Amino acid sequence: EVQLVESGGGLVQPGGSLRLSCAASGFTFSSYWMSWVRQAPGKGLEWVANIKQDGSEKYYVDSVKGRFTISRDNAKNSLYLQMNSLRAEDTAVYYCARDTVAMVPDYWGQGTLVTVSS
Amino acid sequence: AIRMTQSPSSLSASTGDRVTITCRASQGISSYLAWYQQKPGKAPKLLIYAASTLQSGVPSRFSGSGSGTDFTLTISCLQSEDFATYYCQQYYSYPQTFGPGTKVDIK
């Protein structure tokens, strides 16, 4: 069974940093692109970033470029999102997701809440 | 970035109804369009990708159509478990973008 479990969320002050982790199991992690998607409270979905199987390609939404870094450790079956210079508008539930061959997320974790507030 | 719009933003329907949701892209995206269902407090669920390909395990009452800029999601016979919010997503180009969602609730 495919499982994705996010961790690392919490309350952080504006300008602060946080590192999210996603532990994957039930599939060959190193064979899939992986994504982060977020959802602000009561709002819609926003794609944040994705990363190729070997980490050689990464893509970001403009609003996080230069502040967020997606990475992965295939030996640990883990996906990460390093978030720096956090802003109030980054407050959201962050979902880790596995991308299909068609490059769309098929399996999603349950999400981890990041709250940026003073 | 490609902008995605959906209509209606919400609709009320009854069990057994046929429901159609429209998604429009600000520029052509070929068939690089997916549909998701999300229930409150839950992660989204992939229903359809490549505009019309049903994800494994998704009931056949869900169908998708369209290409270019205009797409539709149809639920042929609404069931109680289908009351949720539906999102379209383009993956033709980066950044991938989602529509604002269509909430389907009980009439």
What does this structure look like?
The complex is a heterodimer of chains A (118) and B (107). Chain A has 118 residues and is mostly beta strands. In chain A, 0% of the residues lie in helices and 52% in strands. In chain A, the strands form two sheets. In chain A, strands 2, 4, 5, 6, 9, 10 and 11 form a seven-stranded mixed beta sheet that branches. Chain A has a four-stranded antiparallel beta sheet with strand order 1-3-8-7, with no helix packed on it. The termini of chain B are far apart. Chain B is mainly beta and 107 residues long. Chain B has no helices and eleven strands. In chain B, strands 2, 4, 5, 6, 9, 10 and 11 form a seven-stranded mixed beta sheet that branches. A four-stranded antiparallel beta sheet of chain B has the order 1-3-8-7, with no helix packed on it. Chain B is 0% helix and 50% strand. The interface between A and B is medium-sized, with 21 and 24 residues.
Write the layout of secondary structure elements.
The complex is a heterodimer of chains A (about 120) and B (about 110).
Chain A: E1 3-7, E2 10-12, E3 18-25, E4 34-39, E5 45-51, E6 58-60, E7 68-73, E8 78-83, E9 92-99, E10 105-108, E11 112-116
Parallel strand pairs in A: 2-11
Antiparallel strand pairs in A: 1-3, 3-8, 4-5, 4-9, 5-6, 7-8, 9-10, 9-11
Chain B: E1 4-7, E2 10-13, E3 19-25, E4 33-38, E5 45-49, E6 53-54, E7 62-67, E8 70-75, E9 85-90, E10 97-98, E11 102-106
Parallel strand pairs in B: 2-11
Antiparallel strand pairs in B: 1-3, 3-8, 4-5, 4-9, 5-6, 7-8, 9-10, 9-11
